[in-house]
Write a structure and sequence with these properties.
The complex is a heterotetramer of chains A (about 400), B (about 290), C (about 250) and D (about 325).
Chain B (H helix, E strand, L loop, with lengths): L1 H30 L7 H17 L5 H22 L9 H23 L15 E4 L2 E4 H23 L1 H11 L1 H6 L4 H27 L5 H4 L1 H11 L4 H21 L4 H15 L12
Chain C lengths: L4 E10 L2 E7 L2 E2 L4 E5 L6 H9 L6 E6 L2 E2 L5 H6 L2 E3 L12 H12 L6 H6 L6 H13 L15 H14 L4 E5 L10 H9 L6 E5 L3 H7 L2 E6 L2 E6 L1 H6 L1 H8 L4
Helix pairs in contact in C: 3-5, 3-6
Chain D lengths: L2 H17 L3 H16 L4 H23 L8 H16 L5 H23 L5 H21 L1 H4 L24 H22 L2 H11 L1 H6 L4 H27 L9 H14 L6 H19 L4 H15 L3 H20 L2
Helix pairs in contact in D: 2-8, 3-8, 3-11, 3-12, 3-13, 4-5, 4-11, 5-11, 8-11, 12-13, 12-15
The chains are: A alpha/beta (about 400), B mainly alpha (about 290), C alpha/beta (about 250), D mainly alpha (about 325).
Chain lengths: ~400, ~290, ~250, ~325
């Protein structure tokens, strides 16, 4: 009896371990299946699940749209996307995915990267492995300084913020209140705006930082109302935070009492415009891309994107699109033989005709140089758009 | 002085919102003792139903509300029959896991059906904007919410204290065996209670989306807030939930207005503080042996 | 008198409800003392105050000449005050051997060194395990000592209740209705155990079964509405008209 | 056969058999050593599984063995991660001392917060208090951008060579050996503690608090104690993550991490010691595989797994397996009466 009991425990553990090892072997073995061939592999590290699944949807959608327009073969090589899910700003996962893409999948490029911490975490890896890495979204200035193999096609926060400050001053605003989401990018936007605006002689008469998890904007908006500025510069997370903010802003009658709302384009994200509805009408924002941008490239992009996603694309999708454009260009120039240093040499100074307008990757900083547009939210044919009305040409990242 | 009154109004209004989204949980958790973390799923269902009813079926905001309540209540019975019922007597941990599973499936399902983005919610013209009363600007929608809260509170307190059904619920909760021996069909009573709690969750979700927004992560994003209010109030006590909601609402708004630097901390700190003072909730009953 | 366990003017009220009213209980060393009274007389509340689960509103509890009113329950156990429960309060997924060994290890914890206490397997404390086994054997539980408690028959679980209390090596043992729920036929085993308990252990017995009480106790206290009605020898109690009134109603 | 002899061997062998390292356990750890040679390209993944498993083990100590439900365990993981990260970012690059400091910091936090848990109230109150502490800490790390880097993460974490010899490389070989070594040491430590009289007392507390108090166990002191030890181990797990990724993201403190951890432990099985590791392996492999197949619906599958688990597979994978073994025993007993 006792002996049996003992055997039993052993059996339980044996079975457990056996199962676990089998699981592991099966799971790990499926990894080894990728055969190297006449393909160029692009590993996309982005958010496919969780709260930020929208990031991945746009970035991957944009990348696929580019391949739809331009075919999946360049210089005789087939381009293959390998998409990996970080689940959010989780740098340890991002780093693991990057490592696996490099040593196991043997990718030629790494791309994607929705969040700054994810990009920063993989910097030492891509430097060590000499993998050209295209930042398709993450927007903190310092990113490109962390690895010589980083190139960015998206934007930096100061880059889009500064033109807003300049435009506001030009329009005669002198007293402005800033409201930002209480996290790194928010702090950066606050600093960039304040720096640019006060340098010209304007005054920031109040600053508020709103916690990320706050369903209630009432008290913050009330403080603004009490401070009576001429305008508010706002930077909050796109999504429900932007929606909640806009609603409160209107409900409390700030728009009616003549306090103009200025923001960057991430807040007036094209994808959430219809969710914002009338609340956002008349809001001025500065950004590199609007769905309403009038150009043939944009038309092509929108047509291709709609094949993958019934919803509207946004600037992240354009990041994905242009990132692939840059990669295609490199493949073409190097005739399919990808080498880290040569690829970076091609990327430096590369010019692209993007759906957002002309862009260039700065030869010195590997950061994007692009037009920044000032736009106003208008209702066109029953839908809401950011309509561009003024352009700041070839803006570099002032954060460097 | 004026700003103080304004802050107080905002706080109470925010409290009203917290109450509306949490009271359903207070019922399932407090009366039935089921740790239903999937409360937010019913709230989210309410939100999506409202949006769909209004945009696809062209039903107005007000008439849509009772429809949402009924559909969610009836729909919840399906889940009650198939899943919840089996775990009424399980440990809290099992109940938590089951309901977290439901949240995950609901999140994936909603993403599949509606996409991951924010849903637009349009409330009628007469509910948007503010009334100006004696120099104070009072939001119409918030006033509307407060009226609804008063209505729900009265209805629940009356319903639970004064009606036969209420008596049956209390009897079933206090002692299942005795209730059964008195001829009460406890199972049926629990079903009805569950439907009531879920219906209220749906209604709360529908009323809340204008302020909280609506996307597939709704259920998990606001989970903390539902629990916070209910646990602080003392599960099962409608008044406790109301009191906790108003208290936390005012504390949060006042804190954010007067000390905005600490905005993110206030509600959690208030919760921990209140729970240390009242481990069983403000008006919670100690579980008698 | 050098009582082993004593309460002095013990008083407990929940709000306006007085549940213990000036109780002065006193157990001599080696006593077999029974506490009886109708339902709701406050017997269990009194036990809870003795063991320290409840804090009395006023008055004090003395164990072996020391005031233990403000001492936490686990420390009272350490000083030799142990109890059983009216409703089985056991460790369902531990075996009786583990449960009793655990109790003995807790009792001996200040004598075990940190390595034995924290890092060496329980089986290294073989003398303690032998003691546990001997105790289980004494209570006729040896056959079942290696299966999980929840699989034991009810009567066996009642015995385990007793074993856990005895394993603390109490000076005073509080028995809260040890025969509760045990069918008539199976209670013999239990009574036998009660009768063979060593004389050094003083016992306070709460019981409804009057047969058992009158056979077992040498002193009896009757508690009514939280108040001590009378204390005396079994024959004194049997003859007391007030007790008859309480138990049999006025008509008799 | 002499009666005493039979008696002696019987009850002592029973306890000894429980405490002995089973062949399967030894195989488990050797298999992990084997991974180093067989799957050299997956080492980072497996070391992250080990770190999560270690973290889950620390949760098992308080949930499985002491019976405290917590949703804020990431707080200690995060404190450890930041402690190790801050040290490494400010010039102290030696990894082992980093682990020690991280464990110490997390332990102090665990010791202090354990007093908030002994205030009474039900599981739910404890759940909310732990959750609240976790959320507060997240906000603190988020606001203290100057020190923690906020949501952008703590940069400049440079970890020196292990024992001054082995550098952390691209393939994660050193990292793997390091993590495996530390995980094994802490596992052995926990294992022996759980089989000691102290572990027995903990289990009895989980089984029945009222009785545990009545046999003289100083419950709140024990809770404080185990909570502190669990916090130390969680902190070390956090520090391991920091040192192997050379980066600290604010997500180490996130609610998501606490919630995932709870799910991992439940999937694996509580109070089994190995449940955390098995759960971490299953969860992370499944997440990786399923989200590669169709990233959007990983949550859907996870939900299904959880529901099936609670309805039909209580006790997690290891619990289910032991029931399988029970069936097997019945079958064998029938075969050989």
């Amino acid at each position: 009896m006792e002996k049996q009991r003992h055997n039993l425990l052993t059996i339980v553990h044996d079975v457990a371990v056996f199962l676990m090892v089998m699981c592991g072997i099966v799971a790990l073995a499926t990894d080894q299946a990728h055969a190297a061939g006449d393909t160029i592999k692009v590993g996309i590290i982005t958010e496919m699940t969780g709260t930020f699944a929208d990031f991945g949807r746009h970035i991957v959608g944009g990348a696929k749209a580019y391949m739809k327009v331009n075919g999946d073969t360049v210089a005789g090589k087939k381009v293959e996307l390998i998409i990996r899910d970080t689940t959010g700003p989780v740098p340890d996962v991002a780093k693991r995915l990057a490592q696996e893409l490099i040593v196991k999948d043997k990718v030629d490029f790494i791309a994607g990267l929705g969040f700054t911490p994810n990009a920063l975490a993989i910097a030492p890896l891509v430097t060590e492995a000499k993998k050209p890495t295209i930042i398709m979204n993450a927007a903190t200035s310092i990113i490109t300084t962390k690895s010589p193999y980083f190139a960015r096609v998206s934007m930096t926060l100061p880059q889009v913020t500064e033109p807003m400050a300049q435009w506001a001053f030009k329009k005669g605003y002198r007293k402005i209140y800033t409201l930002v989401a209480d996290y790194g990018p928010g702090h950066d936007a606050e600093a960039a705006f304040k720096k640019a605006f006060t340098k010209m002689g304007g005054e920031v008469i109040g600053e508020s930082r709103v916690p990320l998890k706050s369903p209630e904007f009432g008290p913050y908006v009330q403080r603004i109302k009490d401070a009576k500025p001429q305008a508010v510069f706002a930077f909050v997370m796109p999504g429900e935070m932007a929606v909640a903010f806009m609603k409160t802003y209107n409900e409390r009658g700030l728009a009616k009492s003549g306090i103009k709302l200025l923001s960057t384009g991430d807040v007036m994200d094209d994808a959430v415009q219809d969710a914002l509805g009338d609340h956002a009408l008349g809001v001025i924002s500065s950004h590199q891309y609007s769905v309403a941008h009038k150009s043939q490239e944009n038309k092509n992009f929108l047509a291709a994107y709609s094949k993958f996603d019934p919803q509207r694309p946004n600037f992240m999708a354009v990041g994905g699109y242009d990132g692939m454009a840059a990669i295609y260009n490199v493949i073409k120039q190097l005739n399919g033989k990808i080498d880290g240093d040569k690829a970076m040499a091609v990327l430096k100074g590369m010019k692209l005709n993007s759906p957002r307008g002309p862009i260039q990757i700065d030869a010195a900083t590997r950061d994007v140089v692009q037009n920044i547009y000032i736009r106003e939210v208008k209702k066109v044919d029953g839908h809401y758009y950011n309509v561009e009305f003024e352009t700041f040409n070839a803006v570099k990242d002032p954060g460097k | 002085m004026l700003s103080l009154l304004g802050v107080l109004f905002d706080g109470l209004a925010y409290g009203a919102l917290l109450f509306v989204i949490s009271v359903g949980l207070s019922i399932t958790l407090g009366l039935m003792g089921f740790n239903n973390l999937a409360h937010g799923v019913f709230a989210m269902a309410g939100g999506y139903l409202l949006v769909t009813l209004m945009s696809k079926a062209g039903i107005g905001f007000l008439p849509a509300l009772p429809i949402v309540f009924c559909i969610v209540a009836v729909g919840s019975l399906v889940l009650e029959r198939t899943l919840y019922r089996q775990l009424y007597k399980s440990t809290p941990l099992d109940q938590v896991l089951l309901s977290v599973g439901i949240i995950f499936i609901a999140t994936a399902g909603t993403t599949f059906l509606w996409g991951p983005g924010q849903q637009p919610v349009v409330i009628p013209e007469w509910l948007s904007g503010q009334y100006s009363v004696l120099g104070l600007d009072l939001s119409r929608y918030r006033l509307f919410l407060m009226a609804i809260v008063a209505g729900i509170t009265l209805a629940l307190v009356f319903g639970l204290e004064r009606t036969r059904f209420g008596a049956k619920i209390r009897a079933s909760v206090d002692n299942q065996r005795t209730a059964e021996s008195m001829g009460i069909r406890v199972e049926r009573v629990f079903q009805m209670t569950f439907a009531l709690g879920s219906g209220l969750a749906g209604l709360g979700g529908a009323l809340g989306v204008d302020v909280l927004g609506l996307d597939p992560n709704f259920a998990i994003k606001y989970l903390v807030y539902f629990l916070l209010v209910v646990v602080v109030g003392g599960p099962g006590s409608v008044f406790g939930t109301l009191l906790a909601a108003l208290l936390l609402g005012v504390a949060d708004i006042a804190g954010k207005y007067y000390v905005p630097q600490l905005g993110a901390f206030i509600i959690y700190a208030a919760m921990i503080f209140l729970l240390l003072l009242f481990p069983h909730g403000l008006l919670g009953r100690r579980k008698s042996k | 008198m050098n009582a082993i366990l004593q309460t002095r003017d013990l008083w407990k009220a929940f709000g306006g409800l007085i549940v213990t009213k000036d109780v002065n209980l006193s157990l001599a060393p080696g006593a077999r003392h029974a506490l009886i009274g109708p339902n709701g007389a406050g017997k269990t509340t009194l036990i809870n105050q003795l063991t320290g689960v409840l804090r009395p509103s006023s008055g004090s509890v003395w164990l072996d000449g020391a005031d233990i009113t403000r001492i936490p329950p686990n420390e009272r156990v350490y000083r030799g005050l142990s109890r059983t429960f009216q409703i089985n309060t056991l460790f369902p997924r531990l075996t009786p051997l583990e449960a009793v060994t655990n109790t003995i290890c807790v009792r001996e914890r200040k004598r075990l060194n940190i390595l034995k206490r924290r890092f060496f397997g329980v089986s290294r404390c073989s003398t303690l395990i032998d003691e546990a086994y001997a105790l289980l054997e004494q209570l006729n539980l040896a056959q079942d000592c290696l299966v999980e408690t929840h699989t034991l028959a009810y009567g066996k679980q009642r015995l385990l209740e007793m074993a856990l209390a005895l394993a603390t090596r109490p000076k005073v043992l509080l028995l809260d209705e040890p025969a509760a729920g045990v069918p008539e036929g199976e209670s013999d085993e239990l009574f036998e155990v009660l009768n063979t308990l060593p004389k050094e252990i003083s016992i306070l017995l709460i019981e409804h079964d009057m047969n058992l009480v009158f056979n077992f106790a040498d002193r009896i206290t009757v508690l009514v509405n939280g108040e001590e009605l009378v204390t005396g020898t079994p024959s004194e109690i049997a003859d007391d008209p007030r007790v008859r009134e309480v138990y049999l109603g006025k008509g008799h | 056969m002499s009666d005493t002899l039979a008696r002696d061997s019987r009850h002592l062998t029973f306890l000894r058999a429980r405490e002995r390292w089973k062949p399967a356990e030894i195989a488990f750890w050797f298999a992990l050593v084997g991974v180093y040679f067989v799957f050299p390209t997956n080492l980072i993944f497996v070391s992250q599984i080990l770190i999560t498993g270690l973290f889950a083990l620390s949760l098992d100590m308080i949930l499985g063995y002491a019976g405290i439900v917590t949703l804020g365990h990431a707080a200690f993981f995060g404190i450890g991660a930041y402690a190790a990260g801050l040290m490494a970012a400010h010039g102290w690059h030696e990894p082992l001392s980093g682990l020690l400091v991280a464990g110490l910091a997390a332990g102090i936090a665990g010791y202090l917060s354990s007093f908030l848990l002994s205030r009474g109230g039900g599981d739910l109150t404890r759940l909310m208090i732990t959750l609240g502490i976790g959320l507060l800490l997240f906000e603190v790390a988020n606001s203290a951008t100057k020190y923690t880097g906020g949501v952008d993460g703590l940069q400049g974490v440079e970890v020196g060579k292990l024992f001054g010899v082995f550098g952390f490389d691209l393939y994660g070989k050193t990292a793997y050996a390091y993590v495996l070594g530390i995980a094994f040491l802490l596992f052995a430590f926990t294992r022996s503690m759980m089989h000691s009289p102290y572990g027995l007392a903990l289990r009895s507390m989980r089984e029945n608090q009222t009785r545990a108090l009545a046999i003289g166990i100083p419950i709140s002191a024990c809770l404080t104690n185990i909570y502190t030890i669990a916090a130390v181990i969680a902190g070390i797990a956090g520090a391991l993550l920091t040192q192997t990724t050379q980066f600290v993201g604010i997500d180490v403190l996130s609610f998501q991490r606490s919630a995932d951890l709870l799910i991992i432990l439940i999937i694996g099985g509580t109070a089994t010691l190995y449940g955390g590791f098995v759960g971490a392996a299953v969860f992370m492999l499944a997440q990786d595989r399923l989200s590669n197949l169709n990233p959007q619906y990983w949550l859907f599958w996870l939900g299904i797994i959880l529901i099936v688990m609670t309805l039909y597979l209580r006790g997690g994978m290891l619990g289910g397996l032991s029931r399988l073994a029970d069936l097997y025993r019945h079958w064998r007993n029938k075969e050989r009466p």
